[in-house]
Amino acid sequence: MTYEILTVPCLTDNFAFILKGPGGTAVIDAPEAGPIIARLEAEGLTPDVLLLTHHHDDHIAGAEELRAKGAKVWGAKADAHRLPKLDVELEPGKVDLFGDPLTVIEVSGHTVGHVAFYHEAAGALFSGDSLMAMGCGRLFEGTPDQMWQSLRKLRDLPDDTTVCSGHEYTQNNARFALTVEPTNPFLNDRVQQIAQMRTEGKWTVPSMLGEEKKTNPFLRADLPEVKSAMGMDGADDTEVFAAIRKAKDDF
């Protein structure tokens, strides 16, 4: 079956996504309802499902307006106490979405109870604020080890996966990445591409997972060259990840 992913800019630097398929239409995250509803109407679509990655207001604020348009709200059972009322409470594993499997992946770190959604038939990962283009979310609730294990799960997906993440933070993330791996040729090329895209007013989200694996320092904390660049040869992977995350927080 053929799927199409529509990217919907919201608020200042947020994104929602519309997954359009022959069996139905899903919206992923709802930072605000207006732009999402406008895009749905422009495409002649009705939202069947709203998938929520985590409880932060800039991902759920439009949920009730989309529910009023017909969307059933799906979210993590573990986070149900602070999400909008859920029609379907999800646990990690596979569920059916419009006749194809949707994999619900527990990715605590940014928050505890955060989930990502991998839709194999669409070749898409909806990662919220876990894995981002050139970065990852701040650890507001989880531990470095939780986030590192979460990112490892996402890194195991195919290189040709489209990563639909929650924010346009890529250019700043890229500047930071250069402080970690200044001699990474893939990173240097990507930094130039990102700068050109932003100069032209283009969004850098979605991105491709294969590119993230080559350039995103938060996915590379276990690599010897990254440990060496951080002055942490032989250190535990989680310790290296934690050091990279702290450096980004202070950047």
At a glance:
This protein is an alpha/beta fold and 251 residues long.
Question: What does this protein structure show overall?
Answer:
This protein is an alpha/beta fold and 251 residues long. The protein has helices at residues 33-43, 57-60, 63-68, 144-155, 170-180, 185-199, 209-215, 224-229, 237-249, and strands at 4-10, 14-21, 24-28, 49-51, 72-76, 88-90, 93-97, 100-106, 115-119, 124-128, 131-132, 135-136, 162-165, 207-208. The chain is globular. The model has no long low-confidence stretch (mean pLDDT 97).
What is the helix content? 25-40%
Strand order of the largest sheet: 1-2-3-4-5-6
Report the β-strand fraction as a percent range: 25-35%
| Shape annotation | globular
Topology:
Layout: E1 4-10, E2 14-21, E3 24-28, H1 33-43, E4 49-51, H2 57-60, H3 63-68, E5 72-76, E6 88-90, E7 93-97, E8 100-106, E9 115-119, E10 124-128, E11 131-132, E12 135-136, H4 144-155, E13 162-165, H5 170-180, H6 185-199, E14 207-208, H7 209-215, H8 224-229, H9 237-249
Parallel strand pairs: 3-4, 4-5, 5-6, 10-13
Antiparallel strand pairs: 1-2, 2-3, 7-8, 8-9, 9-10, 11-12, 13-14
